[in-house]
Amino acid sequence: MTENGTPQHEKIVIIGSGPAGWTAAIYAARAEMNPFVIEGNISRTMIPGGQLMFTTEVENYPGFKEGVDGQALMMEMKAQALRFETRVLTEDVVEIDKNVHPFRLTTTTGKVVTADAVILATGANANWLGLPNEERLAQSGGGVSACAVCDGALPHFRDQVLAVIGGGDTAMEDALYLTKFAREVVVVHRRDELRASKIMAERALENEKITFAWNTVVTEVLGDDVITGLRLKDVNTAEERELPVGGLFVAIGHSPNTGFLQGVVDLKDNGYVETPIPWRTQTSVPGIFAAGDVMDDYYRQAVTAAGTGCMAALEAERWLAHGGAEHAHVTEAVSSGD
What we know:
The protein is of the alpha/beta class. It folds into 2 domains: 8-125 and 254-335, FAD/NAD(P)-binding domain (3-Layer(bba) Sandwich); 128-250, FAD/NAD(P)-binding domain (3-Layer(bba) Sandwich), CATH 3.50.50. Helix content is 27%, strand content 24%. The protein has 8 helices and 17 strands. The protein has helices at residues 19-30, 70-83, 132-140, 148-151, 169-178, 198-206, 302-321, 324-335, and strands at residues 8-15, 36-38, 87-89, 93-97, 103-107, 112-120, 124-126, 144-145, 161-165, 184-188, 210-213, 216-222, 229-234, 240-244, 247-250, 254-256, 288-290. Strands 1, 2, 3, 4, 5, 6 and 17 form a 7-stranded mixed β-sheet that branches. It has a 5-stranded parallel β-sheet with strand order 8-15-9-10-11. Helix 1 (19-30) runs parallel beside helix 2 (70-83), helix 1 packs parallel to helix 7 and helix 5 runs parallel beside helix 6. The radius of gyration is 22 Å and the shape is elongated. Mean pLDDT is 92; it is low at 330-338.
């Protein structure tokens, strides 16, 4: 609320602060839309800046021939947005009222912000095993990752024995990708058969570099500064053993940060935001757009997130310029019987 008790009003609010959010902010700011970014709070698995804040080296983002530190990349994106006078609030949005326009957003502290247009860029969380040393080494760059395509080609993974956790298509894709660099890839799966599609399973099973630890779970990630191995447990016999590895890739899926969007915009069956028109970022609610991993369950890369952030800002700008906000007022007035 403002000092006089009325909600703070913004032309455009961007929720989230990963590559999608900051790119959207840069484009919106340069279009003189004076964006307001609600960047999110620190939690156990996420911090403002998104998943790249847990990545020590990014080699596949264009423009950095020697690679770039993930945190440094996000800080530069934020600084670029701030250069164009983007304003930032470090809170989470817990509720969006889509039935009024301007849209009404409520944050964790009860702050109310209204917006003519909203861009959802809250990203997705990689699902982890939940082991303390796993999370510590993932955050410190100690050889634990949830993205083989992002990190698998890094020098310290080459010619190593690498472990992949999971049994679905993502795990098989990761394992096959890692065979380009690893000496051996061990797939650790808690069942005795794969959940992956038949073609992906066959490719992995037929690859000479891939071996399987069936009916097995990881109980501990070993290593101080870098990972040195895994403690494995047979789910049938409870027998434990250690597997020396030079890297761990967790491929048990992602969970989009859409809990607060239930009933606000249409979501896919897997929880990601639905964008009804291909190659567009408009959601099921006119004036609410989505960008980055919160709507992308296929690519999930920093560069594609940034691209959709650009798209969302351009679409929002055009929607507002062509009277989208005024039309939304008319729609609400008609629907409420005024």
